[in-house]
Structures are given as structure tokens and as C-alpha cells.
Amino acid sequence: MSFMSSQFKSAKCASTFKSKIVALPTGFDLIDAGNGAYDPVEKKFDAGLREGHIIGVVGYTGSGKSTLAIQLASGIVEPFENGTVIPFDTEKAWHKPRVKALYSKGGDEDLLKKWSEKWPEEIKNVDTYLDDVLAFIVDLAEFKQAHIEELTETFTDINGDKVSVLAPSVIIIDSLAALFSRRSAKSVEEEGKGDSNAAAMQTAKENNGFFGKILNTIFASNIFIIVCNHITTAVKTDQFDHRPAKLQWLRPDENIKGGSGFAYYADTFFRVNPGTKLDPTKDYKIRGFINEVQLIKSRGNESGLSYPMIFDFKNGYDSLLSNVQFLYNEGKIKAAGPSSSLISHPEFKFTKGNIRDAVIKNPTLEVFIREEVYKVFEGRVPTVGEAPVASTKKDYKEPE
Questions:
Q1: pTM score
Q2: Bridge partners, residue 383, by sequence
Q3: d(CA 271, CA 297)
Q4: CB 330: neighbour CB atoms within 10 A?
């Protein structure tokens, strides 16, 4: 180690930097592995979502983006006694019993206690205006910093290692398109008297500033912000307008309302695309879809990776079934007659319809399925020691 490195690490100014940013698992192997990096020397994955960052989830109405956001939040806080999810339903569209069932995986009381509707007196009650959400984040961060020793916990990461981290808090904003400051909300209400385009531009500008302001605060206090938003289709009247989409992996005619700041500042960004409808008589014996979840932005991985996620109308996204569908698509599960098996472990026989019963009977099978998923991603995610490949794709535009 150089003199500069050794002296700097011992200096007081170095205490303001984290020696390592911890990745927290979400409970979905495809998302954790797809957003990770692999160290071939230690044979370990740095998998999951990085602590204290902004996560974007976008899609068309009814695509399952809100469901994914709720379940991601649940997975992040599940290992922590003091993990908490704070929802901001800006559209007033959530059906509370349905949301709680998704969040608690059908009724886990310990998880339900982490769905925060009441807070200590130190944290004020809030509405869903941008001003109040910002004030809440500041209050929450101050509360966590004042109790940092009590709120620091140890959890077991994806590699089985014990890691200490400030217990995560997850704020869900659903959706950004309905998040206004009081000033902008008043302008929208009075848009008949004024310029509605000007009001929209004002809202976008305020939202962009909001995300820039909170970055350091949420990182220091391990507060995740999961932002849902709608993809809309713009009708172009100018045939010579060939401007690219504001966000990578969106079509030129697609747009996201509410400002581009959250996309610019987001650490990880997912697009949810509705997919093939399942046949409940044979496809996993559930009613739902095989949706596509696409990683359209990642600070730690190449954007564009996509994977199938099994969406159950009743229970939301299912990690086990998604893993199985992924391995079918990758040719890692071989069908032989009425049954199938992992090519790497042919001793376990199952079908799509009875896979859940098969892993209950032989829990090791689920372990092998997860291991096979990570083996596939070893060749698709960044590997420690490899030289980075230069990208020719344009990054996001700096918000105004």
C-alpha cells in the first residue's frame, strides 16, 4: 500500500467515506444476480440492490410495476428487525388488503409489522405532496442517525457472510406522475386559467431538484427510494421530429411524465413488460403472466439484461417459478416425456405444475435451482479483474 493510501485511510477526512457499499438481497434471485458482479477469486457474487439508493420501476398501466415495487421493498427489509417500508400512494389507487397481502407474502405477521403506517413521535405525519415527502425523508434520516447504534444490524448476505449495515428503510412513491409540490398542485388545479404546459414543466423541474437534494441524505442513512411511474405514448405531429427517447430502452414515441431526474439519479432502473398469458391447467397451475423485467439502467452492470418473471394474479411475482422459467429458457432444464430435470442434477424429477411440491419434498432442489441461476449470470455480469468494455450507447441526459 502506498504512503498516500495508508495515510489517507487513517486521516479524519476518510471517515466520511464508506469502505464498502453493501448490496441487499430483494428475495428475487434473477434481479439480485442480474444486478450483481462476480469475483472469480473469492467465488462470490456481489448481488442485490446497493444500500441507500434510488430505484426506478416503470411500465404501462397494469403491467405489474407497483406489485414489483411492493415485493422488492418487502424483500429488502425482511432480514432486518428494524427494516421498514413507508408507502406514499400518490395516486390514491392502492387497495390496502391486497397490498398488505403482497407485502407480507400472504400474511407473515413479522413482515406486516415492518409496513409502517404509524411512526415514533420524532417523525411527523405527512401528506403526499412533494414538500412533505422531502420533509419526511429529512426527519427519517435524522431519526436514524440519532439512533445509529441501535439500528445497525447484522444480516447474512447472498454468499453466507455476516455483514453489518444500518437497517434499511424503503420509501415507495407510486407514482411520480402524481407527485406535486403544493405550488404545482395549485397550478394544475387552476390550469384552465393558465398554461398547463408551464405547470407541467414547473412540476418536472421541482421533481428533478427533489431527487438531487436527497441523494446524500438517503445514502448516509440507508434509505431506499423506489419510484414507480407510467410509460405513456406520445403522438408526434411533426414527421421530421427524430429526437431519441429521453431514457435508454424507451422507444422515441414513449415518455415518462413527472421529470427525468429520478431516471438520471437512479442507481437501478427496471422496465416491466407484460408477457405471455399462463395456462392455469398446465403452466405452473396458476393464473397470471410470464412478464419480462428489463434492467434498463444499472450503475454496476450492463443495461438491457432481461429475464422472465412469473406474475401470479393472486400472489404477485414468484421467485422460485421465475427461476424455473429462466432455466427452461436457458436450456438448463431438460424435458424428458412428462417430467423435467436440471441437466446438472438429473436425479430430481418435476414438472411446471408440481415444482412447488417437488421442492417441499426435496428442499435441496430449490438450492440447486438457485445455484444454477447464479452460474448462468456468472458469464453475463461484470467480473472483478476484467477490463471494462467501452459502451457506444448514450447515457441519460442531465435533467434541467
A1: 0.87
A2: 38
A3: 9
A4: 13
